[in-house]
Automatic annotation (TrEMBL):
The gene is ydcR. In the C-terminal section; belongs to the class-I pyridoxal-phosphate-dependent aminotransferase family. Keywords: Aminotransferase, DNA-binding, Pyridoxal phosphate, Transcription, Transcription regulation, Transferase. This is Uncharacterized HTH-type transcriptional regulator YdcR. It comes from the Bacteria. Residues 10-78 form the HTH gntR-type domain. GO terms for molecular function: DNA binding; DNA-binding transcription factor activity; pyridoxal phosphate binding; transaminase activity. SUPFAM superfamilies: PLP-dependent transferases, Winged helix' DNA-binding domain. PANTHER family: HTH-TYPE TRANSCRIPTIONAL REGULATORY PROTEIN GABR, TRANSCRIPTIONAL REGULATORY PROTEIN.
Amino acid sequence: MPRIKKGARLNLYEKLAKTIGDQIRQGVLLPGEKIPSIRRASQHHKMSMTTVVHAYSQLESQGLIESRPQSGYFVRARAERTAMPALRANKPSPVPSQVDVSRLVLSTLRSIRSHNAIPFGSPYPDPSLFPQRKINQHIQAAGRQEALWGLMNDLPPGNPELIRQIARRYLQNGLAVDPNEIVITVGATEAINLCLQAVANPGDTIAVESPTYYAMLHAIERMGMRAVEIATHPREGMDLDALADVIRTQRIAACMVMPNFQNPLGFQMPDAKKRDLVALLARHDIPAIENDVYHELYYGDAHPSALKTYDTNGLVLHCASFSKSLTAAYRIGWAMAGRYVSRVEKLKFLNTLTTPSIPQLAIAAYLQNDGYELHLRRMRRRYAQQARIMRAAVLRFFPRGTQVSQPAGGYVLWVELPEAIDSMRLYQSAVASGITIGPGYMFATGKRYQNCIRLNYSYLWNRDIEAALMLLGKIAAAQLA
């Protein structure tokens, strides 16, 4: 920090630094938010620009703000005040359960369509971040191309150029894949359903994380299977000792996991644990269905590894899509099905016959020509900033005792409220007030997470979002009262 002579100027810059510092500590200014420029602060506080520079230098030395080249000054992310517990009180039962969550999920998704509702409960990212104009241009061009060449590229495994681009993308991220393993699907949901159908039968037991993404439970429910929930650490993923105990005592047909930025907890499973999980399942010849739909939305410096990285036996069926990273309008996903690829390809043909070819052609053209990586970097910066803002706001506005997850990627936050709060009652009151949330009941087979909710933070933070979160905190506090 620059040396300053004692006197009036010293008092002025210290006063300004204290004013801004107090606003940060009180939560008026949130992590990731931009503070006024030096010129604007000089005009507003009627101080010289030199005085403002000294004040900002002091705030930087205190770790409260940071300078970003060509962007200005921003509130720095603080060390996490609260860590999500390991949910020991909600340790799931090792007894397989019938699954019946589809009606609740359908009701919740319908409420999201309400006009002007704040979409905290939405499973979809903010579409304003997608390069939809460019995608639409490629759609139009693909339509003309398809009129010339016909519709044979609809048939499984899918459009050869799109498959090539997907394989190239994995190679750029450090994973060499066999393009002959890739089957194009109608989104990741179809990929998950096809993979589960390929490896298990009605009545079989499937191991899942707890809490788990409800699309996994849907697939199990749809096929008349049962789920056994495995204790899951909120920052490291599935408890492998608990999984091993279950495997020793009952027949497990498959294991369904989200190792990267799991929905709803947001964790990234450590590489060593991914390797150990693949090895454990390989020893028992149990296939793993890996939902990696958020793999491009990481906040760290490097792309995360996948379970597929450590698979030498063809037992990992890797599922992903472009719906969370590029466009949700056309629902293009894929499965890399290992030793089960021919079975998945056949099931794809029997179940839905084709995946529309025009969106496949359009996305392949975008990947080849239009700067996918640049688009992803913008999304990652936005989501990382939004995550910090949402976490800080929840801890500020919600009742004492509330704890939150620490997402390493993606765009959802898991909130554990005091035990006296029921998330279904909170959901109903929130909907009546024009706010949607994801009640914890959707993420398990029983009522294990009745005091938990999932929040979507992909939408740009503004006054309406902040007011809705504040109101949601008041509704939760009223339940305690």
